[in-house]
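Q: Hi! First time asking for a complex rather than a single chain. Here are the components, and I think there are two in total. Is that enough to go on?
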Amino acid sequence: MSNLSLIVVLLILMALGYQLGMTRSRKVATVNPDLRMHSRPHHYGMMVGLWAVLPAFFILLLWLWLAPAVINSMMLAQLPADVAALAADELRVVSQRIGNLAGNFGVVADAADWELAAAEHLRQLKANSALVLTALMAVIAAVGMLYSLLRITPRLKARHQVERVVKALLVLCSTVAILTTIGIVLSMLGETMKFFSYIPPGEFFFGTTWNPRFSTVGVGEQGDFGLVPLLAGTAMIAGIAMLVAIPLGLMVAIYLAEYAPVKLRNTAKPVIEVLAGIPTIVYGFFALVTVGPFLRDLGAAVGLDINATSALTAGVVMGIMIIPFISSLSDDIITQVPKSMRDGSLGLGATKSETILKVVLPAALPGIVGAVLLAASRAIGETMIVVLAAGNSPSLTANPFEAVSTVTVTIVNQLTGDNDFSSPQSLVAFALGLTLFVITLLLNVIALVIVRKYREQYE
Amino acid sequence: MSNSAPVKISATDVKVFYGDNQALHGISMDVYQNEVISFIGPSGCGKSTFLRCMNRMNDTIEHCRVTGSILLDGRDIHEPALDVVQLRAQVGMVFQKPNPFPKSIYENISYGPKLHGLAERKADLDDIVESSLRRAGLWNEVKDRLDQPGTGLSGGQQQRLCIARSIAVSPEVILMDEPCSALDPIATSIIEELIDELKQNFTIVIVTHNMQQAARVSDRTAFFHLGNLIEIGNTNDVFTNPQQKRTEDYITGRYG
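A: Yes, that's all I need. Here is the structure of the assembled complex.
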């Protein structure tokens, strides 16, 4: 049987075990009317279901993990002596060919007789393996089910068993998320180390020129991999975005939390949050087609030379995008400030605006700072708007009206098109990614610490 | 307190509606200058609602409507020319749960005077802070840690801080909404002594669930029931010789 059908059968078995367990536990309960069952019927059902499925499932996993190697070595043992004497990596090629033959894939050149024989042998082995696995699982599932069915007594703590399994499942799921993060870091770390074997870290972190050349030019002509212009561009665009988003977002939050009638708040808040849901590439169009030319014309009208694609364009549009991050979170935080705080201030004869400025906002400040930092880390990692609207010119400039480039854009540039993943031109993308990751991670950690501290204040 | 003292607050036919729900059914009473008057009655009888009418704190509640007239020193507190901000500076409030601002002790007290521009120089402000804390009997306990957060004080100290905070803006009337309900007996007795001293300078209206407290601190007592004022009189008379059956039932613990 194929592995998929095995799993389907296991699921059916689980349902069956559940029913049997329930029935059995009810029967046990009626036989022992003077004893109270420890757990509810569905706990017994779940326990039987799990006993039927889990051990068999582990066998399946184990088998899938170990069997290919075992089968391969069994197949190799039957090869003619001269082939078997080949070096390890040549043997790998041989077993690859045989595997392809056995799977009815084509191979280069005609297959030798011994190869065909080995392929037949391999097919046989695989069929046997599947058969043995199916039989083994059937036995184990049946034993598990019977064993647990027979164990059902009023004293059996079925609920504890089930809860332990569920808890293990929950732990497993949360581990997946954490492991993914670690995996991402590790995979980037490896490539970054490779990059640093070409370019010393000092040159990367403190270099002020970004000009990686092309990998095809040859190793003799190494480019300049200075991070500073990219970081400066990132900081400038994110800074402009925050300049737009903080005042706007805060005012929105104050209005929604303190002044807006409940009905308006309930409508306006989700509408504003839609801003965060618009795909960033669409913001990119918007910046490129509408905001950029508008800013250019505006600049021309007041005598400023503003590029249509510039740090300003990208920053302004990005600022608009992150307004809901700030407004929505801040609104929640401002609303959480207890009413007694407002009453206390109003009761002293403070006006509403004095109360908001001097009592509510200071009380909410840590939370607001957290919201701002979360928005900032979002701005720093943002890519598509900048790709389209910032002009992609990795030069070190303090003029926001000029085109700049950012870390994210450069990663896109270095990894699109033809790539040779052993050249520093491609590897630098991982170094950039890791740098960005560390920066946003730090911002997030700081934000979370601040937000958590704030939470404790009113508990 | 003799009834010859000048009338500080005069309420006539005050009705309060929360949406379609009528919470007060026409309350009329006078509050005299420098007296302590307590409002008693079972929960939901409208005593807090009436208290909050006196400095228009009910304005902050949506769908709340107040009718009738309340005169403070003969002037209608609802008249358009009178600013609610001025009113609340004149009629201060202490709440059921101590609610110090999450600021330092000093800033908690100086908050009101600063808003109202009562102090021109830092030294004046220092004076106000010290005298307010002294009058609230808190000075000796906190004088060495004025820069520490007010939220770090004990419950009783916090409530005295809140009283000091309202004294600091020099009100004429202080409204207290069950100021001791969240405090232990010792903190309560300290606050009760404080109320006794404060009445030299202020008119105090206090809502309380604790009848012994009403008997101890107040000159007059008003009994509320189901949004009506049932009886009002000298505290002694109300507790020893109530005129109304419902007052007697409540005071003797037959319900409420």
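A: Residues 122-135 of chain B form the longest helix (14 residues). Let me know if you'd like any chain examined more closely.
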